[in-house]
Amino acid sequence: MKLSRSLNLYDSISLMFSSMVGPGVFITTGYILSQTPNPNMVLLCWILGGLLAVAGAMSYAKSASIFPFAGGDYVYLKEAYSPIVAFSSGWLALSVNFSASISLSAIAFSKMLFSLLDPSLDVYFFEAKFLGITFSIGNAQLLGMSAILFFTIVNFFGIAIASRIQNLFTTLKILGLALFVVLGFTFGNYNLDHFTSFPLLPNEPKEWGFLLAGVIPVTFSYLGWNMITYVAEEVKKPEKNIYKAVLISCTLVTLLYVLINFLYLSSAPTSVLTGDEKIGVTAAGFLFGQEVTYLVTAFICWVFMGGISAYIIGGSRIYFAMARDGYFFPSMSKLHPKYESPYMSLAFQCGYACLFSLVKEIESLLYLITCSTLLLATITAYTPIIFEKRNFITTFKIPGYPYSTYLYIASNVVIIAVLVWSKPAEALWGIGFTLLSVPMYFYFKSAKRISASPLPPPVFDPLPSDRQISSLLPENEPVPLAGGERV
After folding, report:
1. Which positions are tagged coiled coil (predicted)?
2. Contact at 8 Å (CB) between 76 and 110?
């Protein structure tokens, strides 16, 4: 049974945009200023992050145009490399990316709510350090776990009610961010003098290192640019609409993020904003007055709750799909007989995300997630080049390809190296989770739970003869045809 192609271009853009615009924009700029205390370079970090998101998403989109099936990077990695590499994709999504993102949103929500009600509530009863990361139990952890449990219960009653709630979160989130930008530039007390005393670009080699370190937390805020590839099988005219959705949505998100951060950075001196986990609230106070901070804090709490809900919906389906294919414990593939929800996956994810909630510092979770994500994105971005070398071609064209893909891969390698250097504990945790996928793969393989069924071959619509040769390989290389011939 195939999924129906029901998503048009507007639907695809909406899905991408809502997936990318998350809670990261409210907290990461304070961390970036800790790495590079230059507001001009901070804006450059957000612009570079957007360009990298576009380059990565376009590479993914090219693979999606060749294999327009549901599953995203899992599909491309399996075809390009091997099942064990594909398994690592699902494993990282399962073990880190979604679960840790749920926890990050939950803890951030708790801390933001405490700052609204009573900051003295944010206390810890126990904390200990293990392998470079501090784990703790406090009111923020308890409230965060309660929020995770609440949205898990909501999902238990089926996707219909969960999606309606999620749509409400998303609609108000986008409206609120747009209103913040419009009112900020219309009535806000922003001051361009906060930029003028700093150079526009890095002047020394070490400043370029600071710039790269600043791009790391920005990368987290752009996560979600690959969402369209997970539903590629449901997109109408995927050879056209996928790349258009990627380009338009990434451009809109980059523009939105740059405008929001311009308002942040022009609202107060850099010394006031550096390291501030609640930079969105602090900037709003300077822009509109302290009486507005309560409303802004409540809005940010709303956005964080929407993040918890969205990650729970998406993550639980990964547990379910992997179990159904034999990659995870069979009980995780059970559906509730009445509500048709993956209730066992939801319950497992709830407990697992609560464990991640014990990480004390939001920043630690942010860097851990970013490291594992970049590792996976780097090897996935190379898949369209592999497919072309194997004679799979498509009319889908990427501006500057394949050099844009090589640049994206090289940038990721450099960013990962900077991350290992600047945040070694979080980077090693991310690498450790990645390496753990190897024994887990062989465990499930030995238990004969892994399905060996191959993907269906890519199907191409017949093309006119004058469009048959449309490879994007450099001009000095032979052009492969669909039938494997070369000219």
Report:
1. none
2. no
Distance CA 174, CA 278 (A): 19
Residue 114, amino acid: F
How far apart are the C-alpha atoms of 430 and 374, rounded to whole Å?
10
Can you tell me the distance from the alpha carbon of 328 to that of 336, in angstroms, rounded to the nearest whole number?
Answer: 18
The string of DSSP codes covering 348-388 is HHHHHHHHHTTB--HHHHHHHHHHHHHHHHHHHHTHHHHHH
Contact 247, 176 (CB under 8 A): no
- Residue-wise pLDDT for 8-56, tens only, equals 787 778 777 877 887 788 888 988 898 888 899 999 999 999 999 888 8
Quick one: angle between helices 424-446 and 83-92, nearest 10? 130
CA distance 77 to 157: 34
CB 243 within 8 A of CB 225: no
Percent of the chain as helix, strand, coil, to the nearest 5 = 70, 5, 25
CA atoms within 13 A on the CB side of 35: 25
Q: H or E stretch including 133?
A: strand 133-138
Name the nearest CA neighbour of 373 among 216, 487, 167. 216
Q: Identify residue 108 by its one-letter amino acid code.
A: A
Say which CATH class 9-467 falls into. Answer: mainly alpha
Residues 6 or more apart whose CB falls under 8 angstroms from that of 182 comprise: none
Long-range contacts of 4-8 (CB under 8 A, 24+ apart): 4/234, 5/233, 5/234, 5/235, 5/236, 5/238, 6/234, 6/236, 7/231, 7/234, 7/235, 7/236, 7/241, 8/236, 8/241
For 259-289, what is each residue's pLDDT tens digit?
999 999 999 888 889 888 889 899 999 999 9
Q: How far apart are CA 438 and CA 447, in angstroms?
A: 14
Q: DSSP H helical segments within 396-463, as ranges?
A: 403-422, 424-446
- Count Cα atoms within 13 angstroms, Cβ side, for 31: 26
Please state, in angstroms and as integers, the Cα–Cα distance from residue 410 to each residue in 122, 262, 390, 415, following that order.
Answer: 41, 28, 23, 9
Long-range contacts of 330-337 (CB under 8 A, 24+ apart): 330/449, 336/156, 336/158
Strands (E), 202-332: none
CB contact set of 417 (below 8 Å; sequence gap of 6+)? none
Q: 406 is written with which tokens?
A: 């090589």
CB 151 within 8 A of CB 347: no
Q: How many CB atoms lie within 10 A of CB 131?
A: 9
* Separate counts of helices (H) and strands (E) for the chain: 20, 2
Rounded Cα distance, 91 and 71, in Å: 13
**Cα separation values, 132 from 129, 161, 195, 463, Å:** 6, 40, 36, 56
Instruction: Give me the half-sphere count of Cα atoms (radius 13 Å) on the Cβ side of residue 432.
Output: 8
